[in-house]
Specification:
By secondary structure, the protein is an alpha+beta fold. The protein contains 20 helices and 17 strands.
């Protein structure tokens, strides 16, 4: 039986000087027993603690986001991996690995230009974890170190980091996704040193700017990128796919001993007879899609002929399975109908039709009111033809409207138009809500597996949206003017994407499901606060106290799951 604890102050004389201890005692089984002793020090040191001086200096640095990303980079062994492939001779300042890691962490936490990295760095705990001087953080120092890295070294580094991600985080490789996008740049038209940025169809708009293409191979397990490829912004996807397919297969072989169990998912933009032959000869299975207008016989299949798929996995989806010769080879083909997709497409199409009707009616009315005696430049048939082309430039619009231009006796143009109801009914019946999938999987895969594999493309599409988000992971700003530096820039942007997706996946495995924006918003609000007190008497060192800023319950849980306390300065 134990009783309440009692505290007492005890003095000891050591070498003629008094020192004080706080002792806690209690009765155990009726006998007094000392259960705890705390050393308090001399009377002067006790007084100094009791009469605490005012804080001389307070330092607040961003902690949570930087440390969380840094911990994943540590697990991937980023610095050592880069330095093995791009070593420096002797002591030439920070290593290439340190520069690339800092660039990637900047993308993770607060994307900025190289000239601003130094000021951002000083406001984070990275100044303690990756100690660098102001002179080492200039734009020129970053560019000098980026200059050392060749395309072959980028590929070798990325492969080793991908292997680390797979083995150390246990990534599932059964289904891998390949897709491409492009990013606009501000390279001058007369800059001939860079061949990769070219004008083409910009997926973010800005067709007047030069584009850089980026293709990514990612997992469905956590959206983790395992390979990236930069290419000319005006290059067609099928041409790009042909140039990278050998590298794709080599990466798959390097990452998995069961490469024949991997299924590669890609979009119809990569289709060509040559590409499909290469995929056939490769080690992996595939799931792709076909261009609907090239297979009207399949699109003519009605929903009534289809089988409804498992409602728990794929609500409101029907499929018709068959075999067909595609690119000179017999393939399993699945025609699917998605009611939700149909509803969305019908709503969009109705909006676009009504918009064109209003514009054509406005143009028609304007021409009707035009008179020969009116002042100013008269409309011409050629000019109105161009106006009509602009109005009907959207998808399907030329098929859905018939237009006719005539001239009055005075030579003034008049417009007639009609909406083609029959074409609209055909479009709804044959094309809307439907997708054609094809695969080399036979009876070993169900209809549901094929559809779910293709639908998983949203993982890599989400990666592209993240790289285009200005808050975190932004591919821009891209202030580089040579192909070599653009390739290195793309590499550390994709590395940052790998780091944050692994971080998000780690939280999800502990039941904390957050978007990257939500995750980083919470983490970057966790600050490290350092209090500096004046130098006490008889001491050469100032008193320093470090602790975390006040954090909410969600942030406490994030910090606990990620083990962030181990990075707190003691």
């Amino acid at each position: 039986m134990t009783e309440l604890k009692m505290a007492s102050l005890t003095k000891k004389i050591v070498h003629g000087k008094p020192y004080y201890y706080l002792r806690e005692s209690q009765r155990v089984n009726g006998k007094p027993k000392i259960v705890r002793t705390i050393y308090l020090g001399s009377a002067e040191s006790i007084k100094e603690r009791l009469v605490r001086p005012k804080v001389e200096e307070i330092s607040i640095r961003e902690f949570g986001g930087s440390v969380a990303a840094y911990s994943i980079a540590e697990a991937l062994d980023v610095v050592a991996t880069v330095d093995r492939h791009v070593p420096k001779r002797g002591h030439q300042g920070p290593s290439v690995g340190q520069y690339l890691l800092l660039a990637a962490l900047n993308r993770c936490v607060a994307p900025t230009s190289k000239s601003q990295i130094g000021s951002w760095y000083e406001k984070t705990v990275l100044a303690r974890l990756l100690p660098l001087t102001a002179n080492q953080l200039t734009s020129q120092r970053f560019w000098d170190n980026m200059e050392r890295i060749s395309s072959d070294q980028v590929a070798a580094i990325e492969q080793e980091l991908a292997q680390n991600a797979v083995t150390r985080f246990g990534l599932d490789l059964n289904c891998l996704l390949f897709d491409a996008t492009n990013f606009f740049t501000f390279l001058d038209s007369f800059n001939q040193r860079a061949k990769l940025p070219q004008r083409g169809h910009a997926k973010q708009g800005h067709d007047n700017l030069r584009l850089l293409g980026l293709a990514v191979l990612a997992t469905t397990d956590g959206d983790v990128p395992l390979l990236h490829h930069t290419y000319a912004g005006n290059q067609h996807d099928s041409v790009m796919f042909h140039s990278v397919v050998d590298q794709l297969f080599a990466r798959c072989r390097a990452l998995s001993q069961e490469v024949d169990q991997i299924t590669l998912v890609f979009d119809k933009g990569n289709n060509s007879e040559v590409n499909l032959d290469l995929v056939e000869q490769g080690p992996v299975h595939f799931v792709g899609s076909l261009v609907p207008t090239q297979h009207e016989d399949l699109m003519a299949i009605q929903r009534q002929q289809m089988r409804r798929l498992d409602r728990s996995q794929l609500p409101a989806v029907w499929a018709y399975r068959t075999e067909k010769k595609v690119f000179d080879r017999n393939r399993t083909v699945l025609v699917t109908f998605n009611q939700q997709l149909f509803n969305a497409q019908q709503k969009t199409l109705t909006r676009e039709i009504n918009k064109r009707k209003r514009k054509l009616e406005k143009l028609q009315d304007k021409l009707q009111r035009t008179r020969p005696e009116d002042r100013g430049k008269k409309p011409t048939v050629a000019g109105i033809e161009n106006n009509v082309k602009e109005i009907l430039c959207g998808r399907h619009m030329k098929d859905l409207f018939s237009t006719q231009l005539t001239k009055t006796r005075e030579g003034l143009p008049r417009l007639r138009f009609q909406f083609r109801e029959a074409e609209y009914r055909k479009l709804k019946s044959m094309f809307m809500g439907k997708t054609i999938l094809f695969t080399d999987h036979g009876q070993d895969w169900s209809d549901e597996q094929i559809v779910l594999a293709y639908r998983a493309q949203h993982h890599v599409e989400a990666d592209f949206r993240r790289l285009k988000d200005p808050r975190y992971l932004s591919f821009r700003p891209t202030f580089h003017w040579t192909d070599q530096k653009l390739r290195v820039h793309a590499f550390y942007c994709v590395l940052a994407l790998m780091i944050l997706n692994l971080l998000r996946r780690k939280l999800a495995q502990s039941g904390i499901v957050l978007s990257i924006v939500e995750m980083m918003n919470q983490l970057t609000e966790i600050n490290e606060v350092t209090l500096l007190y004046p130098v006490p008497q008889r001491s050469k060192e100032p008193v320093v106290q470090t602790q975390l800023s006040k954090i909410n319950d969600r942030q406490k849980k994030l910090a606990s799951v990620l083990g962030l306390d181990r990075f707190l300065h003691n």
